[in-house]
């Protein structure tokens, strides 16, 4: 029930924020803050002291034999079609829920002073997106999963379309169409899968547990698997489905970018790990060399495109695609190190990309441009902001001691055992990452401040947000065992050998 | 006291944190005390731990390791924050903290009144910490952390004066070029793990000896990949192009990072994993050949430079070439020995060059100097000491280490006349270019006045370094255990001895004749057709930058610019406009005229009937 509460708090908080708008434009953000903090408190309790919530017992009671579920909630929804409410969380889901709620709080910090118009509706959308994402990370009924997949999409569409920048309608529509078309493919695949499973076993069910071990293979298995793959690869995103991302990011308000880069992309990776490979082991194995190649190519291709950008948000957006290539590579290498690396990359990139977008957004808010050719010499103007930009860029480059390195290193270490060629190309990603990242530092922080921009350094709220994310990345980089230990039971239950 | 080993890298980290989070509010004096003091304290702890270690090794224990915590454990992969101290890492630790401390003290004077004084020392402290982690790591992953960390600090410090975009360019070039090597090294780690199942250095050495056949493909692949990392960091062929540009950084940086410590990391890596190289004799020979070619090439290039720091930079490349030569012939302890003496005299030369540059108001062109021995007596004396040590004149420190290397090249089984000849030719070149530099700066006609900048923090460290450069050759480094007693006596004939002592002196004499007595007119030669081309060829590092620009940099940048709009996007936008186009065409058929509708309906019926009839 606790998982349902997590979502309900956000849903209700969202509605309350929307309704409260008429009583003053500052009230919605306070309500949103309360809702998120309440969620955060619950999630932290789940992580630190599950006993307080009575969780340990529940987990052991409803162990399905399919995994080490810490929490599981089941109720009927549409029994006639075998559709039910199944929410479950294991280590992996919990990590991602924590990421979601934590970055939700950060995005609130980003929106705090930036969003002035229709703030009630904004915070409604923000909270509903977060609730949708939590649903995605916990739903274990495929119909329910698809439902939440849509729930997180539509409020995000509004966030871009209403509070975005100069080209927001185009960007929002592009985001919507990409996600919707690929989501449609997934829906088709779900229906075919359920139908075939019904034919084979005479059991009409959308439950993840019932569909595991469906044994689909051959051409039909490959096609159904590809339906899932395309949906998740679009969300991840990877080449050639990535084109919605640069537009969505450059147009979205800062809080939207934080959620997009930090959280929404991870639903794609989560989908691959939780659904695509476990539901279709045979087709996935056949597909793996291709997917790993795609991952490596995506890393290099988008890094090159990123290098040419002058719009700072577009550049960071392309680098996000590049980093997600490592996740794709790691997931399809499908061994202990590679998958742990993929999970670490998801978490670390969530922090670093969110921080970088927040910095880019902060810059745009202050000097009203995203064009790096107009920037320069900002070390002298805003040292705190510059330090943060340097720190998170260095993290994104994959500096050991910070989380991103752990992720990428483990991915490569694992994928090397699966495909030497793909790994060799992906390792070149370390070089090109340096190429595009250092250009950002050069253009923004170094050189002369030719346009004589003068602006305020980081505010207290911003500084707190960045400090928190900095601590997070250091933690992941110096003692990643905390996260690795949480994800390990999940990966074990997916059949990964941990000798 | 050896339990305090963990403090050695930790104290500089604390210094870094204090300096960073003071956000530039710390006044200069406390910043200097924290910045230099942390390294001094770290040196003291290192000495205490080292004394304990020496006592232990006399009792028979040859190594000490200290696990701080488990970094990560994933499946069969495990890596810890574990420090490992043996003879080699002990020597490296002393060089890093000792020379590092002297350079820090010097820098408090050199960077006086710089607006970003604290930031400078923050980066410096972080560098020292990373370098210590590199040499104290017990596994290759932790070593890689230090490896990347020093690369980052090198980047930050080369571009320290960030207002000039040229400095930023140099910093980026250094980082990216070395990262090419780092990627190769990372692949080497993956291959090692895939093959032997661990990254712990000592375990790797044992397992490799047990499981690999001498000259096997895996041994060759691993050593080649690690060599890629080593040549990147140590600025050897073919990745040496970044080091001369790295001179854009403040001079103390050039002394600390680009002469004494970081650039020798490649030498350390190969010495540390020498067991693997012995399993791949062809690669080991390649190491020697790379060293030989690099030392000659850099020697020629140093001969035609006109920036005082660039001459020293190429001389560094050349001297590291000697270390690679030594590694290639299996003379590991000689390589480490030369690493140490080189750290003494090259740090001295760089810092003195810094004093000269200060005295000349930031002029670095040696052709605008000249006749400075009267104006700058201190710098003159110190620079001369550094130069004779670099040229390897008996009995300075450089003589002993270089002589050991050349003797090993001649007598060791992996060596041979080719490598030896390259080495002695390089010794002649060293004499020539070093004394060219010395004579051009301190002799000849005076064109500009110089004013010696005095201060205990400027001259004090220099005097200590000068003493070390002179007598450092008598220091015994405790590395026999690590390299399994490769320190046998070399018996070489007097003839070869004479050549090795004589050639550097002959080089110096030639420099005297050319640049002071003007007996040979090089300017005329350099101005003529062939001479000018040759000059240009040497000056541009044998055209390697030119080549890399055209083969890699320009095509990459060009392709990236060409595809700035991401051609995949045009496919999607094309689809969208196609759909819109069809939509418009179809809308046009909606004319609202009954006539038109009736006709199209009739045509449609006709079409359907004809399909039914004919198909």
TrEMBL record, chain A:
Subcellular location: Endomembrane system; Membrane
Primary location: membrane
Keyword Transmembrane (UniProt): yes
UniProt entry tagged with the keyword Ion transport: no
GO-annotated cellular components: endomembrane system; membrane
Membrane topology listed for this record: Multi-pass membrane protein
Keyword annotations: Membrane, Transmembrane, Transmembrane helix
UniProt xrefs under Pfam families: Proton_antipo_M
Family listed: Belongs to the complex I subunit 4 family.
Name the record gives this protein: NADH-quinone oxidoreductase subunit M
Taxonomic source organism: SAR86 cluster bacterium
